[in-house]
Design a protein that fits this description.
Strand order of the largest sheet: 1-2
Number of domains: 1
Radius of gyration: 21 Å
Distance between the termini: 21 Å
Oligomer: single chain
Order of helices and strands: HHHHHHHHHEHHHE
Number of helices: 12
Length: 280
Amino acid sequence: MGRFARSWALVKASASVLRSDRELLVFPLLSAICTLLVAATFIAPLAFGGAFARLDDGHAPAWLWPVGFLFYLSQYFVIFFFNAALVGAARIRLDGGDPTLADGFRLAAARWPQILGYAAIAATVGMVLRAIQERAGLIGRWVAGLLGLAWTVASFLAVPVLVNENVGPVDAVRRSVDLLKRTWGENLVGNAGIGIVFGLITFAWIALGMGLVVLAANNGSALFAVTVGALVVVGLLLLGLVQSALQGVYAAALYRYAETGDAGVGFEGALVADAFRVKA
C-alpha cells in the first residue's frame, strides 16, 4: 500500500507538469502515428511479395534478417527521437520555462546522430532477444524476457542522458546504468508504480466497456454496443498517450534529480528519493 501511495503521488506530480504543457501529448501521438507508417512501409511489400507465406512453410529467406534489423532500427529511431523531444521539452518545464513543440523537436534534432546510434544498439539487442526466443523454446522465452527486462532497466535514463549530455550512445547507456546504481539501485518502484496505476485504470475501463457492451447486446441495441466499443478503443488510446507522456516527464525529472538533487518544478525531492531505494 505504501508503494502504491507513492506511485499515485508520483503520477499526480507528473500529471501536474503535464497539465501545464498539454501539448507534450503531441509527442507520443506523433510517435505512434510514425511507427505505424514505418511498419506499413515494411509489412506491405513483404505481404505482397509472399514473404509471410514462406515463413508459414518454415523456410525463412536469409534476407529477412537484415530487413528485420532495418525494421527494428527504423522503429526505434522514431520512438527515441520523439521521446527525446518529449524529454527535452519536459526538461525546459522542470527548469521553470515554458516549452513549445518546436523546442522539443529542436533539442531532438540536434542529437539525431546519437539517437540513431542508440537505435542501432537497441535494434541489435532486439534482434538477439528475438533469436533467443525463436531458437531456445520456452526456456529461451524466459531468458529473453529476463534479458529484455535487464536492458529496459539499464537503458531507462539513456534518452535523458543523450538529450542533456554531449556523449555517444554507448556512453549514454553506461551513464544510465551508473545513475541508476548510484542513486536508486535496481528497484524501480516509481516507474513500475506508474505502470501498475495505468494498468488498473485500463482494466477498469475495459471491464466497464465490456459490461456496457453486453448490456446493450442483451437489450438488442447494436448501435449502442458499437458506440461503446469505439469509446473503449479511443479511451485506451488516450490512456496510452497519457502514460507515455507521463513516463517521459518522469524520466526527465529522475535524470534531473540524479544530477542536481532536485527533480524540478512539480516534484518534491523527498518523494522521488523515497520512490527509488537502493536494495540491501
